[in-house]
Amino acid sequence: MTMPISERDETHLPKWTKWLDLSDRALAVLLLAPAALLLSLIIVYPVARLIYTSFFSLSLTSGLPAEFIGLENFALMIDDPVFWETLWNTVLITIITVPGALIVGMALALLANLPFATQWPVRLSLLIPWALPLSFAGLIFAWFFHSQYGVVNDVLVRLGFEGIIWFNSPNWAFAAICLTIIWKTSSFMALMILAGLQTIPRSLYEAADVDGAGRIRQFFEITLPLLKPSIVVALIFRTITALQTFDIPFMMTAGGPGTSTATLAMYIHQNTVSFLDLGYGSALAVVMFALSMAVTAVYLRIIRAKD
Question: Nearest-CA neighbor of 67 among 57, 52, 53?
Fold first, then answer.
């Protein structure tokens, strides 16, 4: 009679069978290894290569070989007025559009969460701006704000106001860009917040109704506290993408007038693609990457502090 394998002496088993009896840690490492390798190829290596290139003088137009210059590319930024202007424009766009998109997105999410008889048209309207390509949105709103045949000026004239030459003034051009970004990104915030609203039990609102709490009090004492995780996650993604803003201002103004609406991402594009200065462009990209990581770290500290 053949004995069960579990009762046999392990010395009689083939050597390869020991790989089938893995510990939990070894099994976890084995399962995570493909994902770790993929992340290394698409994230770690490009970032490491970017940082490495930032320490070199590497211009494809000079015809000279790459030369290690240490931190000179970063030192050049201190005396570069365009860098400071584009950095300030990027920060200002983030400060204006992230809270603006949050407020508009919150209102849209609350509207989409109302008990309509037919909810799909309302929720579909949230998907359209989010699904629209950024460059396409920039082209559409460049036409909307056109000084001669734009929709916005046509409405202003019909209301008795004077039309505005939007893209000849730095302030008006910047305002047009911010309004466009808020319109485009508020749908993303709305979708994230709407997903959080779906997780709040209706029983909490029913209990609040019994206690006599009004809608405003329910919002601040039930809805808003339970939405904080969803809001923080949405803010992290929206802030990082705001710091990397490129498509909409590039399509609407190309950074003009002058460089008054240019962003840091546009300045990186100009140095690397137009001027082929890969060393300085890489250093600028490292600054933007560090800024994005710093903002993410702040949000994560906020989350941990609340937990």
Answer: 57
Look up residue 209 and give its two tokens.
Answer: 């109704």
**Tokens 């860009």, located at residue:** 177
CA 176 to chain centre: 20
- pLDDT at residue number 202: 87
Residues with Cβ < 8 Å from 84, sequence gap 6 or more?
none
Specify the residue for token string 């103004």.
Answer: 253
Contact 115, 197 (CB under 8 A): no
Which own/partner contact pairs does 152-155 have at CB distance under 8 Å and 24+ positions apart?
Answer: none
Partner residues linked to 68 by β-bridges: 56
Q: What is the pLDDT of residue 32?
A: 84
What pLDDT band is residue 1 in, cutting at 50, 70 and 90? very low
Let me know: does 253 contact 177? Beta carbons within 8 Å.
yes
Report the predicted TM-score, pTM, of the whole model to 2 decimal places. Answer: 0.84
What rounded mean pLDDT belongs to the chain?
86
Residue 94: Cβ within 10 Å count:
22
pLDDT band at 123 (very low <50, low <70, confident <90, very high): confident
Model pLDDT for residues 139-161, shown as the tens digit of each residue: 999 999 998 888 999 999 999 98
- On the question of a cis peptide bond just before residue 257, with omega within 30 degrees of 0, the verdict is yes
